[in-house]
Amino acid sequence: MPVFCAQLISVLLLLGLCTACRTSRYTGQPGSKPRVLVLTDMTSIRTGEREPDDAQSMIRLLLYSNDLDLEGFVASSNLGHGQQIRPELIHALIDTYSQVLPALRKHDSGYPAAEQLHALVKSGQPIAAPNLPVEASVGEEKDTEASAWIIRRTDEADNRPLYVLVWGGTADLAQALWRVRRDRTPEQVTTFCRRLRIHAIYDQDQTATWIKANFPDVWYVTRTAGIRGMYRGGDTSLVRSAWVRRHIHGHGVLGDSYPDYKGGDIWSRRLGGFTGTKEGDTPSMLAMLTNNGLDNPDRPELGGWGGRSIPDSVPNRYVDAIDLPTNPDDPDPRMSSVYRWRPAFQADFQARLDWCILPPESANHRPVSAQPAIRQIQARPGQLLEIKPSRWRDPDRHSVALRWEVYPPDPNVQFPAETGPILSVRAPQQPGMYWLVEIATDNGSPALTSYRRVALLVK
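Above: the chain sequence. Below: its structure as C-alpha cells.
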C-alpha cells in the first residue's frame, strides 16, 4: 500500500470518521443534526413544587430545537416522586414555546412548529423505581406508547444513530429492547441495538443495569456526579437566582416560565442548599449541540459543553472523565469538565432568550466558519509548528478574538499563557493524536463563542 494511503487511513481511524465503522457517525458538516429522543421524569414546572429541574432543562432544549432533529419526548415514571407520568407538563411547555416561536424564527427559520413537537410527546411506563424489580416494568403486557415509539424511531430509514437522552428512568427503553429481542432474530436485534446511542444521567431504576447486562451492543454513556458541574464549582454567579431573574425572567413567556430552583443535592449537608439554575440533566443535551464546533456526540471522550466521558473497562460503555489539573475545593473532580465551559454555554443560553424578545439586528449570534469542524495536521516529533486560524465571520459584524487551548487536556502539549490568532506550538516527542481547539469569541452582548478542532497527528 502506498505510504500516503496508509497515513490517510490511520488518520481516519484515529478520528473515528471512517465510513467502514459500524454505523454512520455525525461528521460536523453543515446540515448534519443529531437525532434526539428524550426520556424525562418531569414532576413540576413551578418553583417550589417537587423537582422542577427537568422543566429547566426542557426550556433550554426548546431554545436549541433548531439545532437538533427531535424525535420524541417520553414522559417516563416519576420514580421516587410517585408512580405516575406527567405528559401534560411537556405539552404545557411546548404551548409556551409556541408563543415565542414567531420571534425565534426571525433568527432561524429552522425552529420546529409547536404542532410537530406536540406529536412527539408519548406516555411511558409509570411503574418503575430503584427498589422495584425489572419484571415490574418490563415484559409481557408491559408495552407502552413510549416503548413502541422508541422502536419506530430507531427503525427509521436514516443512516444517523438515534441518541436517547435519559433524564429519569429507562423502563420504556428497556421494554422496547425486550420487545425487539422477543420478536426478531439475533442478527436483527444486533442491528437495532447498534442504531442506538444512550446518554443517561445516572442509572435511576433497575432497568438500566438490566439493559447493560442483556444488550452489550448498545452504546451507553452513564453520567454521575460530574453533571453537577452545571451548578456547582467554577463561577456560580452564572447560575444563581440573581442570574435567573436578570437574564431568564423578563425575556418573554418562555423565560418567565423557567422555574427558579430552590432545593438541594447530594452535597447539601456539606455545601448547603441551592437556588437558581440546577439542570442536572442538561449536560446530555449540551453534548448534542454540534453547531458550536466543539461537541461531537459520538466522540464523548473529546468533551465539550456537556462535559467529557471516557471509555469504561466494558466495550460500548462510557463514564465521566476527570479534567486535569483538578480543583481541590471541588466536592467531585469530575465536575470541572462541565463547569469549565459554563461562561460560554450560559452566555449562549442568554442570547437565545434575547431572541425571544429582540429582532435579529438587536441580538447577538455566534461567530461562524464555513470550514470543516475538524482540521487535520501531521507533524514530526518535536517539530515547531505555526498554525493559522480558520476564516471566521460574525453575523452581527462584531470583532472576533481568537485563542487556543489543548482539549482534552494533555501535559505533552504546552502553550504559552496567552495565545493569539496564530499558534506557535512544538509537536510532542511522543507519537499520537493530540487535540487543539481554536476558540473564537465575539465582542457582542453577551459575548458568544464558537470553536474549531485541530487534530494534530504526530508520527
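The two ends are 18 Å apart (CA to CA).
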